[in-house]
Amino acid sequence: MMEQIEDKFKKIVEPTELQCLIVFSDKKHVPYVYSNMINYIQIILEEKNFKPILLNENIRSGEGYFERVEELVDSCVLAIVLLDGFRPNVLFEFGLLKSKKKPIIIIQSYDAYINVKTLYDESIKNSTQKILNKLENPKLDLKKHLSDYAGKHITFIDNMAKSSDNDHISQVLTKEIENKYNQIIQEAKYIKTKNIKQEILEPLAPSLVRIITMHGNVAKYTIEEITKTENEIRTMVKEMSIKLPHSIYGIIAETYNAKSSNVASIEEEIYCLKNAKRIFEESLSNIENDIKNNIEIATTKIKIGIVLLNLSDIENKKENLEKSITILKEALKIITKKNNPEEYVQIQTKIGIAYSILCLFSNKKENAKKSIEALKEALKIITLKRDPEGYAQIQIRKSIAYYGLSDIENKKENLEKSIASIKEALKFRTQKIDPKGYAHAQMLLGIRYGKLSDVENEKENLKKSIEALKEALKIITLKRDPEGYATIIENIGVTYDRLATIENKKENCKKAINALKEALKIKTLKRDPEGHAHVKANLGGTYIKLANIISLNTIKKENLKKSIETLKEALKIITLKRDPEGYAQAHAKMAVAYGELSNIEHEKENLKKSIEAVEESLKAGTKEVDPEGYAFAQTSLANSLTRLSKLENKKENKIKNLKKAINMLNEALKIRTLKRNPQGYVSVQINLGVTYGIFSEIENEEENLKKSINALKEASKIKDSNINLKIRQTINKNLKISLTRLARTKIKYKKKISLR
Hints:
Helices cover about 70% and strands about 5% of the residues. The chain has 33 helices and 5 strands. Strand 1, helix 2 (about 30-45) and strand 2 form a beta-alpha-beta unit. Helix 9 packs across helix 10 (about 200-215) and helix 19 (about 410-425) packs antiparallel against helix 20 (about 435-450).
């Protein structure tokens, strides 16, 4: 279930080489610019295949300000200038962009002001505090303050607008980028070709402009057009015996990479990713031979690592993940936290993602820990304040790694860390700012609370799980995302099923059944056979639970037969070879259903079917994969064998079944130990006591009664508060019977001696 959910959200969207510079006032001068506008601007730019560059975060302490600003301005194909605050550095950077004739989108909110208070020196502030307190920051008026830009080149936005309103930053920016699209393409062409001689550039120009245009909007172009343009460029380069800058080949590779997420089939996606990988590897070889530029080598290795990570979603998962990690680690030999913080964060994040997925296939504990280590390293630089979206993404991946680790060690501690990571992500991924991210985070939160309920506060955590999953359904609706909706509804059904064992049993069973039936409307046999089968298997289990709640035999029988029929349908898809764990669980449920049905009708026949089902479940070899499931199967089989022994006419068949049952229960005790599972331990010891008691009626009466008493006394030692009064009464009742019978046996024995 968990892996299916994670698969929906594994797609990694990468920024391209089209850099967009964002110029704005610092948070301490204009708080609302940073907290709201910047987040939306970054999201829109990444959707449009730009790489957002926050100017104030790309000039490190001690670095030459003017040189670095000029370098960033030269390399950008677009700039967005936020005038709010009207700070001196913003005006200088705006002027520099104009002097370089860069495409610029100038944005101002309707209520923008000039922050003049912060221009005063601290010492002056202290001496003139009363005057400053009365001073109001003037409203920004471009006619007065920037006469040449008296509104005609400025785009206005409303900070209070909804994301669907025309004057919301996301709507305004999308429109402005479209208006400046031709200018942006021309600027990209200039940057990428400025080092190519004119006589070489002229014949190549149409093809170069075409590939740059495709790179800016892959959705408008087919794979065939990209391949044709690449071949045209390569043919001309070969005929003219020239060398193009590596950046041109980088754009071709990036275009294939961007196109991979905008195709109709998996085959097309593989084709695009493999072409991107091929060109990046070719480019890397040329860079290493030609210029020995360490940073460019590292950057290209990062790109190859990312392509391999994307490719691992589709084919050769383990192999591609391992290759991705290897080449990304090679890049880390060049990229350092101090000199290249952005690239360093990107590498550590991707390594963390790769390890978190790799732990599903091998060395789960080791790879989960390596994932957490890499992601924590990235979080030393990426903070909620500095890059909210990046911070949220890393926290989600960290949550996934902790979740995987919880299966192996410190279950409670690691689940709590996983939950804490999601809550950190939700500081940015709010319903308003990032509805899809919010829904994904809530869904993961629901799954983790469900798992935490295995360890502590079962009722409370199951309710938290349902609450979080329902929160996700506010965004993931049947109309918007039917598959996601079905997955969440199924999880809600499974959680209600578990809650039914604690409170409102009948009501919660019915809620579980309704939810699972709703999931089946989307997860049909035709559309999603495996998903359909797993929902059916869960539904089969809930019908058993409902049958046990209802005392009327006719309705009880009806629900048990529904369970058996539903599980049989599931097992048409869930095979031993394809899904051994699911196969074992479905047969274990079938065994319970037949066992319960044997109490109502055809006792011997249904007990035999129950035994057959358990034996079938044990073919999956679940002892290593699912030890608790294995112990449950052994206990269930023992119970059926014990009951069957009472129905057998032949003594040898009775003995055979009872001995087999005792062996099964002893096998279960290897898993359900006192330390690991006190409740399970008690259950097995009670069954063992009862079975020895029945066995004593056939042979070795005194010996088997003593074994019965020992098992029941072992069960009675447990003082766990979760072991309820009814269970204790069962222990005491059976213990009293065995002790009474043993006493009578000794009296009989004494009488026999005296008669002699």
